């Protein structure tokens, strides 16, 4: 007979901004396979944190029939056995080597280390143990976090968006792993499962606006920015002319004996819209960190950024001033300078109210891009350019709204505006649709297509998912094991230039 694990009784979370979860009634038994679905902002991840004991409800109660340590949440890429300190900018992280400890040194102390090794072999990822934490790609961190959680053999395994940032090969491996889990283990999986057979083994639970519903409401067509809402083109007003935004010749990067990039040759010029693809660990993140100036290993390499050889006297801020950047990591770290958000991200807190304590408006967030501040309100005054930018993306009504009160999709669009506020000649979008629902992804892609119609700004777009790539991308680079193995023109693109 199934064992009762967790009971949620009339559970709600209320804040000054309104209700985030309302009257949740749910029982989880051993062997359950539950798939929580719903649009971004519906409360899915919040529900998982409550069940895992990271938060407490403001109303109702949670009853546990198993110890909390037997409930494991995998979703924030935090690896057991490693410290919680991380940096958004890689130029800091590469110097924090923790006495050269490898992941094996950290994970060896875990009681389930043998199980971790077995699962790493199953994913053909045993080589990761010889790396240090900062050397892992985002996808590798995600997989290793899941593997360590599974190996701990919990009674209830919670997987929050486990497929995000994971390449196609490892998504298949992940499906196989979930298929093979003990029938006595309960699994709560958040987000779509990209496999029909596996999906059909899970009972669907739908969240809409913080409430459990029998069937999801059907939404109308995505609200997208107007195609050309402005009389004058707001972009490229102050851009300098460059021959090469990026040019690399025979660039190779290694950490000790571990080669990360090998013999890289490529260039990006104004107007190029480049998609970069490749499996987890193929070198995409390293390549991007060389371009953004965040990695000191660029020194001594034949790297030209904005017609200037790297290391010839330019500062990192000279480089960053010419680049707009957006990634899920930037979104996650945006408030990290505020101690109350650190508690939400890394600690087990009793209430969620502090998450909404920030007074930053959307206009503050966009203006902070002028000085590359993260989480600090810019002193820049409202100007016509900011007004035009909000109008272009059809977000004028949100200009003075609190950034934290917006849905994740609208927050991502605001952060896109932040990346563009300097009118940079190069825009880098690293998995920008990760974590967005289908409607929000369509809205974001449409925003990029509309922007590209009006700008010669070059775009680098990193994605594992073809359906997340806007139509304006006109070139595709594929990476494998640190090398560029393909550099081709994308034929099915919109001819904007």
Report on the structure:
The chain folds into 2 domains: 4-213, Rossmann fold (3-Layer(aba) Sandwich); 246-489, P-loop containing nucleotide triphosphate hydrolases (Rossmann fold, 3-Layer(aba) Sandwich), CATH 3.40.50.300. It is built from 15 helices and 19 strands. The chain has helices at residues 44-51, 90-93, 103-107, 113-122, 138-151, 168-179, 196-199, 284-292, 316-320, 328-333, 339-346, 362-368, 384-392, 408-420, 438-453, and strands at 4-15, 18-29, 33-37, 59-64, 71-74, 156-160, 186-190, 203-208, 211-213, 246-255, 258-268, 273-277, 303-305, 308-309, 323-326, 426-430, 458-462, 475-480, 483-489. Strands 5-6-7-3-8-9 form a 6-stranded mixed β-sheet, sandwiched between helices. Strand 13 and strand 14 (308-309) form a beta hairpin. It is globular, with a radius of gyration of 23 Å. It starts with a strand and ends in an 8-residue tail after the last strand. 41% of the residues are buried.
Quickly list its features.
497 residues, alpha/beta, Rossmann fold, 19 strands
Largest sheet: 6 strands, mixed
Q: Structural class of the helices, strands and pairings?
A: alpha/beta
CATH class of the largest domain: Alpha Beta
Number of E-state strands: 19
CATH topology heading of the largest domain: Rossmann fold
* Total count of domains: 2
Into which percent range does the helicity of residues fall?
A: 25-40%
Strand content: 15-25%
CATH superfamily of the largest domain: P-loop containing nucleotide triphosphate hydrolases
Terminal Cα span:
65 Å
* Number of contiguous helices: 15
